[in-house]
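debug: dumping io for the single-chain case to check the tokenizer round-trip. Nothing else runs in this session.
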Amino acid sequence: MNIPGTIDRPLTHDPRKQAPMKPSLSEPTGSATPDSTTGANDSRQNRTREMQLIPEALARAQMHERMHDAERERRAMSLVVARRMQRRAERASLRARRALAMAVMQ
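debug: decoded output
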């Protein structure tokens, strides 16, 4: 069952606010070294802060990439438009030459 406050869904994800683990009867007492030193707590806090900032950094990188893609797309579209206008101008120039040649021949 997924009842709030279980291992699957703790009430809080902050390790300082969670209830301390109760020693089990199957383990001998003093078998593990305690990790309640301030250095371990600080590093745990730094890790959780870094872990919380990972999605933000990922989103920022994705937005940066999208902005570059949009800028590349804009440049490509403006190049297509410029080439189209250049061809149109060349055709108009050719028509003007022909018209001038026809006028001179008559």
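debug: round-trip ok. The CA atoms of residues 16 and 41 lie 8 Å apart.
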